[in-house]
Design brief:
Blueprint (H helix, E strand, L loop, with lengths): L5 H13 L21 E5 L2 E4 L4 E4 L14 H11 L10 H13 L5 E5 L2 H16 L3 E5 L20 E2 L9 H4 L2 E4 L4 H11 L3 E6 L13 H14 L2 E5 L11 H6 L5 E4 L10 E5 L1 H4 L18 H17 L2 H22 L7 E2 L2 E2 L11 H4 L4 H13 L2 E2 L8 E2 L6 H19 L2
Parallel strand pairs: 3-14, 5-7, 5-8, 8-9, 9-10
Antiparallel strand pairs: 1-2, 2-3, 4-11, 6-7, 10-11, 12-13, 13-15
Bound molecules: pyridoxal-5'-phosphate.
Amino acid sequence: MKLKHTRSEAAFERAQQLIPGGVNSPARAFGGVGGCPVFISRGERQYLFDIDGNRYLDYVGSWGPHILGHRHPVVVAAIQQALATGTSFGAPTESESVLAELVIAAVPSIEKVRMVSSGTEATMSALRVARGFTGRDVIIKFAGCYHGHVDSLLVQAGSGALTLGTPSSPGVPVGCTRDTLVLEYNDVEGLAAAFKQRGNELAALILEPVVGNMGVVIPTPEFLQACRDLCTQYGTVLIFDEVMTGFRISYGGAQAHFGVTPDMTTLGKIVGGGLPVGAYGGRADIMNTVSPVGPVYQAGTLSGNPLAMACGIATLETLKKTNPYAELERKTANLCEGLSQICRVKGIPHTVPHVGSMFTLFFNSEPVTNYQVSARNDTARFARYFHGLLERGIYLPCSQFEANFVGVEHTDENIEQTLASAEAVLGEITGI
Ligand SMILES: *Cc1c(COP(=O)(O)O)cnc(C)c1O
């Protein structure tokens, strides 16, 4: 049964000599589960193939973008067509307006939008615009939310309400995080207290409207509404970081799903369909502070890149036309109910939150509502579960603190096969 990984092991050995940790983004390095990352040779629909020739059913989807699966024919054709005209011009193209129009039509809060090249760039720019627009400096983020590797947002999670942020990465000057308040997700009282104390200094409140980056954590309706109401009351810009949830939870993102409209929204992942695209947008009066209309500077040599625009346009048009969201939700719910059933029978403490096609199987007996609870997950059990499934040809995110994604190419048979494998692996772990 054991899969062969000798080529991946050699490739990882070589990469570690050349690239810090052998990876260009730390989440890929299997740090949370141990062992050697598998090196990929190609993707096809819902499957990944590694350089040793093993095939995996993919629940990572490049950490979000591949809701349509790998190498969707419409997407491939669009990129090929764009490639025939050139890769980058540093001058406007009509494709930028096509993607902007699709984004504005889809996302309730966005009246004007600027394209960038990553989610990090999107959140960094949105914060600058919110600060420029309000003339204020202080921002609120929530423990366990990830908004890219922006200095002012890389703040240590976990400490209590209103604790001034301390940098969680060496290299981030204390000055960069002095104006970042870190609060606990889903804590309406803590949020209200923070606004009462500092509301008139607050430029922005930024959050993942469904968290994916401490595993899937779902907001209570009261919490999302409190975010909206307090921001309105104090003139603070409410930013939904929908880099993960945009075009994932619904075509209009979490804001369309929950019916709560922020002032600004950041996008990434699916909006680029697998090429590097991020975007930030919002109310026209706020976005008109951006250069060259207004004084807030933000720029990018490769922003609005024609290949990336073509890939994003093909992805969004396909999603719009096929509207797969109800079907995605059905498959995801079946998978999560099945996992929960297996855990119940084997007496494994667990909870499996899911929204749309995002889910996490937490090895935790409590409902995971915030970072403090998520920090109590059984990560050792997760590591065994992860490797057990990998050896059975199922590729999950290599950390307990990540969202898993179901895509349009996942079949009901794939879901059944995943459940059978999960049952076998959890059986080995528990001896039940
Ligand atoms: C992935 C992610 C980011 C960062 O995007 P990058 O493209 O990796 O820079 C920001 N916010 C959220 C919610 C994300 O999931």
